[in-house]
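Tokens for Ribulokinase. Go.
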Amino acid sequence: MSQSSTIPTYVVGVDYGTLSGRAVVVRVHDGAELGSAVHEYRHGVMDTVLAATGAPLPPEWALQVPADYVEVLRQAVPAAVRAAGVDPAAVVGIGTDFTACTMVPVVADGTPLNELPGLADRPHAYVKLWRHHAAQAQADRINELAARRGERWLPRYGGLISSEWEFAKGLQLLEEDPELYHRMDHWVEAADWIVWQLTGSYVRNACSAGYKGILQDGQYPDRDFLAALNPDFAGFAEEKVDHPVGALGAAAGTLSAEAAAWTGLPAGIAVAVGNVDAHVCAPAARATDPGQMVAIMGTSTCHVMSSDTLREVPGMCGVVDGGIIDGLYGYEAGQSGVGDIFGWFTAHFVPGALREEAAARGLSVHELLTEQASREPVGAHGLLALDWQSGNRSVLVDHELSGLLVGLTLATRPHEVYRALLEATAFGTRTIVETFAASGIPVTEFVAAGGLIKNAFLMQIYADVLGMPISVIGSDQGPALGSAIHAAVAAGAYPDVRTAAGAMGRLEHAAYTPDPARTEAYSALYAEYTALHDHFGRGGNDVMRRLKALRRHARSTQEVSA
């Protein structure tokens, strides 16, 4: 196939987010997005009770139902093709991306454990979503043992493994429900499980394997290390995780007849190797050169960038050879809570009068608070926040940390707190950018993508806090477009992802520029943020950890009483 073909051809990109899946139909030769559709997961996120039984879940759990992912293929893909008005026969490939690390326990044929008879009431039989943080104790043990033994792979992850990742969650499964652990044949990233449903074959993607599965230089942590964590865990890597790895942009297989019936697409078209939602976004933003950091800003933020240099960056989520673009080292960092924090505040701490005002003016609560907050100068609220309501992913890698708000008075108003939360996430990003620069990986261009780029005030805050221009992706569906780009490569329309990104991606350079006076004012606030960050995050005071321990104890006592 040639990109210069006179007959238009199309690809489909499917982006699996935290609450929904979205499909977009893209023209191969120029990346034009012709139609899209969104399907919300019927069960959403199970973080308080198990949907099948109504039984309460412990703190820090976050589960999903894998059948909801298949429904996205049945609903969103056909709807997007209809919206695009294209002939399904002209679609030549499909690509997908997923939140990560999101894990599915399955038997040999790919059936999730929760779908087996008698297991619907077992929480560990379900998908563990990326923001399932209940494996922090297991992550702590992995980190302590790896540091003590001097494991060579540990510095590739900034010195710490996250509770969100494959090994910590797998160890939690073993230790809390060993029967299910032994019934499980594969511990599968959802990114690979959905491709398995599309093709009928299981191919592990290089991105998830490297960043979330501790695969470095072709090797996982060895049996001796795993056995030292738990004797029954010795075979985890080779028995539950290890599988042939597919390169990004390659074809994992072709669309099966069953999946063709779900989607309405032609059987036999190319299905791209799976990918992670953040990493796949870089080509969509034409950010394929060293030094371009892409921040995919949604419920959380993931920061990805490529470099021709291999360095150890404290607190990074990982560095993987070819993890984003072939031939370059791909780096990842992130913030566990961003849009989630803003949503949490508006859902629980905004008075009825403000909601009524927003409704009367035809605004969302977010829009009204943003309007009010934008009228005031930097620092006028007298507040400072730590953006750790979902823990800290980078650079501290500690999900026992929690949010903090300093400076409240009886005169404090909701829009002032809202602005302090917006600013806190920008300060968290600046911490990441500065850590990379100090490690010899400078950020030369900061590119924003994701749903939060619609808030122009937030983007200006980021430009002012960082003291550098903010470029913005030219698509509302960055991950889905990125998946479509990978589908085009898998279908043979382009020789590689970089070439496809040049033709199909889009970027507005320097859409927001910093104001020097605001940057100076924010630098004073950022110094205070850093002092709080280091005090509570680096051992100055462990009160956040103690409070979470007290919460877990109280909740468990309540459940036993009930």
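The chain has a mean pLDDT of 96.
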